[in-house]
Amino acid sequence: MDAKEFVQSILNLSEQASNLACLIREDPQLNERLTASKSDRMNGEADFKTLADVLIQCTFSHGLKRKFPGFKINVRGEEDGSFPAQNGKQVKLEITDDVQNTRNLLSQVLNDGSVVEKLSGAVHKNMEVHDDFLNKISGIQLPDVLNVWIDPIDSTKSYIKGGDSLESVTVLVGVHHGGVPIIGVMTYPFTKQQIWGVCCGDICVTNVPTPLGNSPIKTVYTSNLETDERRDKLRSQGYHVETPTGAGYKLGGVILGAASFYLVSRKSTYQWDTCGPHAILRALGGEVVLLSDPETPLPYNESMEPNDGFIAFLDKQGALKLLDALK
């Protein structure tokens, strides 16, 4: 499988996902009505999924498998493909090439024919992303078996809230092979930005320019579950600590140079959050490593369990210095 063709398909499908997210979110009443509660795996607090989450994941999975029917592509994600129908039962949004099938499925969730028609059209609309950097991976052959993690809407609470919070919303796609993330695509639907990276064998390519990272003040992103004690200790060592919303957004901050490190000491992220950004970091020469063993990268498999604690960085020596400061 040619890397250029495969990454091009992920970019196109991610752009389609971004379009769906914006279509659903642009109508506040529609967005509010199409929000379902689900249990929070980490701490029992209320968590949510939207129709955008489920529809994007199902559309993406169908599109990728249709494009590469002869390859074993295992697509997994945060959502289970179901959403509450108008009758209170759960409906499986199984997307096919048949637009009428999509209309029928969405009609079980929505009672507005015009909205059903608009969303059905978006599900079956082909998007094309143009990026000259893709030529750099032309001819690179990918493994025949690929595992894909997708987070269709990362920072769902920000997506529901709207306003300025929407800038932290991302669509995350990561591909791993042999436990190693090799392809990552991050799409920011509401700021119209898309970044990607490939790091496969000795080949590392990304459309992200290497951040300068020359500031003497190092910014550390942390989870909102991080202890005040740990944050205070970082500040006492001269670090600037921030807690933006969304694991994808925080990882993107390290990729784009807004932060030097992203530190997670608790089990508060999942493989669908980290796989894509991790691959982009690797393409830039960075890494995501376990706090328990900074020489070991965060591993990937098919587990739905939360990740162990980690630190993401572009500067390994700086990351080790930070970890020493926390001892």
List the helices and strands and how they pair.
Elements: H1 3-25, H2 28-33, E1 35-39, E2 46-50, H3 51-67, E3 72-77, E4 82-84, E5 90-92, H4 99-109, H5 113-123, E6 145-154, H6 156-161, E7 170-177, E8 180-188, E9 193-200, E10 203-206, E11 219-222, H7 228-236, E12 240-242, H8 247-256, E13 261-264, H9 271-283, E14 287-290, E15 310-313, H10 316-325
Parallel strand pairs: 3-6, 11-12, 11-13
Antiparallel strand pairs: 1-2, 4-5, 6-7, 7-8, 8-9, 9-10, 13-15, 14-15
Question: How far apart lie the N and C ends?
Answer: 46 Å
Strand portion: 15-25%
Strand order of the largest sheet: 3-6-7-8-9-10
Structural class: alpha+beta
- Percent range of helical residues: 25-40%
List low-pLDDT spans: 37-48
Mean pLDDT across residues: 90
Q: Can you summarize the main beta sheet?
A: 6 strands, mixed
Query: Which geometry do the CA atoms define?
Result: globular
Number of strands: 15
Q: How many DSSP helices? A: 10
What report would you give on this structure?
Helix 4 crosses helix 5 (113-123) and helix 8 (247-256) runs parallel beside helix 9 (271-283). The chain has 327 residues and is α+β, with helices and mostly antiparallel strands. A hairpin with a 2-residue loop joins strand 7 (170-177) and strand 8. It contains ten helices and 15 strands. Residues 37-48 have low confidence and may be disordered. The strands form four sheets. The chain has a six-stranded mixed beta sheet with strand order 3-6-7-8-9-10, with helices on both faces. A five-stranded mixed beta sheet has the order 12-11-13-15-14, sandwiched between helices. The protein starts with a helix and ends with a helix. 35% of the residues lie in helices and 24% in strands.
